[in-house]
Amino acid sequence: AQSVSQHNHHVILSEAASLELGCNYSYGGTVNLFWYVQYPGQHLQLLLKYFSGDPLVKGIKGFEAEFIKSKFSFNLRKPSVQWSDTAEYFCAVKFLTDSWGKLQFGAGTQVVVTP
Amino acid sequence: EAGVAQSPRYKIIEKRQSVAFWCNPISGHATLYWYQQILGQGPKLLIQFQNNGVVDDSQLPKDRFSAERLKGVDSTLKIQPAKLEDSAVYLCASSLVREGEQFFGPGTRLTVL
């Protein structure tokens, strides 16, 4: 069965530190890849997405992610975090097994940035 | 542009009662999704509509859950009867086309006692 796993459930770091969140999926076929973020009290919103092309994807708010096909990974990075990056981050994968491609989410990583 | 609207925002019921949630997607969005997010987990797709037709309900517990999208716009999700394990946040999302970005609503937090 297809699955999405996120490596860390909770991450605490200081402002200006670098952030990297891991995401792996189990499926050898074609996928679309996403990172969503949920700030406290707000809706889930899209950070970035990868469909094809350059495996290094840039998103909003200085985030980027790299798709490594051989490792089935799509890790999220930000070189220098701010207090406002405190949020829950979800990796999501659309497994294109059929024409509809169901979106499957990881369990999420709660990131807390301390001043 | 108005976002995805959901109501109610919170609901507390006792087990075996019924409950309904409402979703109004972004205007013009053909695809509508209902997700269930249990505490500590990511959202799980329950049902996906394309206009007013169901295209995926493989993870919907059909013995107690039902959903409809009349006229291809608003949608309701119903649980009858509710169980304790149905306590979760129910998220509605919509996209312009099935391949497009999904926009999420604020969710309805359901507590079943």
Describe it for me?
The complex is a heterodimer of chains A (115) and B (113). Chain A is mostly beta strands and 115 residues long. Chain A contains no helices and twelve strands. Chain A has strands spanning 3-6, 10-14, 19-21, 23-26, 31-38, 44-50, 56-58, 64-68, 73-78, 87-95, 103-105, 109-114. In chain A, strands 2, 5, 6, 10, 11 and 12 form a six-stranded mixed sheet that branches. Chain A has a four-stranded antiparallel sheet with strand order 3-9-8-7, with no helix packed on it. Chain A is globular and about 45 Å long. Chain A starts with a strand and ends with a strand. Chain B has strands at 5-7, 10-13, 19-24, 31-37, 44-50, 53-56, 65-68, 75-79, 88-95, 103-104, 108-112. Chain B is globular and about 35 Å long. In chain B, strands 2, 4, 5, 6, 9, 10 and 11 form a seven-stranded mixed sheet that branches. Chain B is mostly beta strands and 113 residues long. The chains are: A mainly beta (115), B mainly beta (113). Chains A and B meet through strand 6 and strand 11 of A and strand 5 of B.
